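thread: overnight batch results

M.L. [08:02]
morning all. the overnight job finished for the chain we discussed friday. pasting input first so we're all looking at the same thing
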Amino acid sequence: MREKRKNDNNFIKKMWDWVWQEKAFAAFLIITVFFMLVSVVWVYHVKVLNAPKVYSDGFGYFAYLPALLYGDFTFGFIEAGGWEHSLKLVQASGGLVNKYPVGVAIMESPFFFAAHLISLLRDALTGSVTATGYSNLYQYMILFGGVCYWAAGTVLLYRLLKGYLGFSGRVSLLSCIVITYGTNLFHYASYDACFSHVYSYFLFNLFLYYLCWYEERDKEGKNKVWQTCVFGFLAGLIFMCRNTNILFVLTYVFYGVRNWETFKNRAAVILKPIRAVPIIVTGVVTLFPQLLYWHAATGHWFLYSYGGESFYWLAPQLGNFLFSVRKGLFFWSPVLLLSVIGMIIAFRRRERLYTGLVVFFLLIVYVSSTWWMWYYGGSFGQRVVVDFMGLFAVFIACVFERVEEQGKRQSRGYRLTAAGVYGYCGICIAWSLTCMAAYWHRVLPPDGADWNTIRDIAGMVCRGCR
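M.L. [08:03]
and the structure it wrote out:
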């Protein structure tokens, strides 16, 4: 008992020391979490700009959790209970299924069951009936969980940038600030935290952090079999949150690859049975909840659950996906253009994660743009890229690092470059926050934005300035 208490005290001390050393980052984290929680309360309780809080695709991911309470994976309890949100099942080979994978529900489960215990206690004390699986407390806890996953994912990202990729604390902090406030990440970690994206953001950052940690230890032969198995577990969770995101394992495959010779060396390492077998076995075991549901619903262990929805591989909507007014990635989050510059800057060194991140980026953009609904329905900006905001942060950090190096060398064009880069970031953050507010107030529609929408957003700003 004394040893356990001593270990607990040491852990708390280490955490406190880290927070004290990283005061600026800790302040950013605390302030942003506060703003996110205030935003959730303001949107859903004060202004009631949208209801329910867990809805659309988010409800499809969430529905597995109340299904556990009711023991009904046909989801008939939803209609029988007269819930304010319905769930449309998809016809697949062998029966009807919930097309959304189970990974998000698994990650939401601690917050869901915490809400269930509180609801049961409240019902026992007051005689009310709130332990339904979908009352207000459950929904608020899911959004609170999204904020927590953003915070954990951002801590991992900061430590990856500073601890393993060698960026300064200032550069790492600025990169985290820019992707949080200059893109739709803030929105999907608060207002729409019921969607899958903030969970994938956390998992991607965890995967990259663990990959760098593991490879550093592997040089000294310190890794054990169970530590290798973690890759299979994380890959399984990533797949179950959003199937196409399994492409992210390419960052593992291409770690440290600079050319053909280093690729052959990397392939020889990762194909060794001592590595490959534990990862594959653990990955399959991790997928068991998904396979079990499919089998229970249809009698098949493997199936395509999205029915008639498909990819148009030979007709990618790359221009629309990246630049259109409707949902263009760089139109609604222009700060991410800096990451493209960062890829160019980092090309010569191509250290550690570079090749894997670039290959993944090119593939996931192509795959995402070939989906039949390349605009991904009602959403703020191009929502599918929220999953890999950590990738953008790495390459934006390359740009900030170049500016920082110019400052240290006292280069002649430093002030102009710094003013241009940081000024551009400031403008992009202002644009993103303005558009987010417009989306919350339905000035920016969930879909179908055009140039008239931009005029409406400008009118909203003008009215707010009066």
